[in-house]
Design brief:
Elements: E1 2-7, E2 16-21, E3 27-34, H1 40-45, E4 50-57, E5 62-66, H2 79-92, E6 96-102, H3 108-119, E7 142-145, H4 170-175, H5 179-196, H6 198-211, H7 235-314, H8 316-333, H9 338-347
Helix pairs in contact: 5-6
Region (Disordered): 148-232
Coiled coil: 253-308
Keywords: Coiled coil
């Protein structure tokens, strides 16, 4: 998961999106629900019903900044950018995150599914930390920013010079008097003092000349602009990026091979089903041929019977006479006379 936070930084011409990367392995629990009692600060900038996505993390989030940015990003000269950067620092150390959004715009189905996948532990595939970092910020690449300040708390000799590079809190900046006003007041005091005491003015002039730095000398390394201190990616970082790219390509290839195997298996199953259907169709064709043959034979028998019946109907009288002649002949052979036959037939 990535959250994009735009902020104005020094030596950057436009707003720079700082990415907050949440690793799935750090998510212990994730829930999505309607916000019953959101904080007052959230209600002040939101209207309508809110929904919230809550996460409990086992580790801190990762802050991604541009690769060509200095080791310690500094805000532009405005209070809002400083507050945003302070909020990013606080967010990077938080282990409980609650993201509020309008309830009518929240993709409920997607967020419920995401919560279920993150809560089950291994539902979301996690890529290496450096994967796709080189694609961020328009192709210039990004890096993981160590948010903790790298400045020493005090100088080795016990003085407080080590804190000169650490910017004061923005609440204190507004409360303290301006440094330029203090310096101007000091210069005015010196001018008034020099006008009244010529000897003191001469001493002050010599002292200021002694303290004035030689501009022709090379400046110390600590006072170089931050643009010259941009870190170059080391060999290990390049190797890590290459390993991440190779791993991502291997994952894509394995996914493609798995998809190809699944599709090939499905094709084999379809081919088996098609062969079985072809066998069934051939069997049905053979049965249909047998039925057609039986129907044709029955039609021939019916036609033959129809012919016999028609023949009998056409020669009904001849058949009756032939039957009578045959019966008479048989009776005469047994010794009966024709009169008896007619008598018997008449009585019967």
């Amino acid at each position: 998961m990535r959250l994009h936070i735009p902020v104005k930084l020094k030596q950057v011409p436009a707003r720079t999106p700082i990415h907050i990367h949440i690793r799935p392995s750090h998510v212990q629990s994730c829930t999505f629900a309607v916000a019953v009692d959101p904080p007052e600060a959230v209600r002040a900038v939101s209207q309508g019903q809110l929904a919230c996505l809550s996460m409990n993390l086992s580790g801190s989030v990762q802050v991604i900044v541009p690769q060509n940015m200095s080791l310690s990003p500094r805000p532009a000269k405005n209070r809002a950018s400083g507050l945003v950067l302070d909020a990013v620092r606080s967010l990077s150390r938080a282990t409980q995150l609650v993201m509020y959004m309008p309830a009518n715009l929240a993709p409920r189905t997607h967020l419920h599914r995401l919560s279920a996948l993150l809560s089950c532990g291994d539902g979301v595939q996690e890529l290496p930390p450096y994967t796709e970092l080189f694609k961020l910020f328009g192709g210039s690449g990004g890096r993981i920013w160590d948010v903790e300040p790298s400045y020493p708390a005090s100088s080795p000799d016990g003085g407080g010079e080590g804190n000169e590079d650490i910017p004061p809190p923005y609440q204190e900046v507004s409360a303290r008097p301006s440094t330029l006003r203090i310096q101007s007041e000091g210069r005015d005091g010196k001018r008034r003092h020099s006008s009244s005491d010529p000897v003191a003015a001469a001493v002050t002039d010599e002292t200021s000349r002694a303290k004035r730095p030689d501009l022709r000398a090379s400046p110390p390394t600590s006072h170089l602009p931050e643009k010259a201190q941009r870190p170059e990616p080391t060999i290990l970082q390049r190797l890590a990026l290459l390993e991440a790219v190779v791993h991502a390509q291997a994952v894509q290839i394995s996914n493609l091979s798995s998809e190809n195997q699944a599709q090939r298996k499905r094709i084999d199953e379809c081919e088996g089903e098609l062969a079985a259907l072809r066998l069934e169709i051939a069997r049905m064709d053979r049965q249909l041929d047998r039925l057609d043959l039986e129907v044709s034979e029955q039609r021939e028998d019916i036609a033959r019977l129809d012919g016999n019946v028609q023949y009998c109907l056409e020669r009904e009288d001849d058949i009756a006479e032939a039957v009578i002649d045959a019966v008479t002949e048989r009776i005469s052979e047994r010794g009966l006379s024709a009169a008896n036959i007619h008598f018997i037939l008449g009585d019967g």
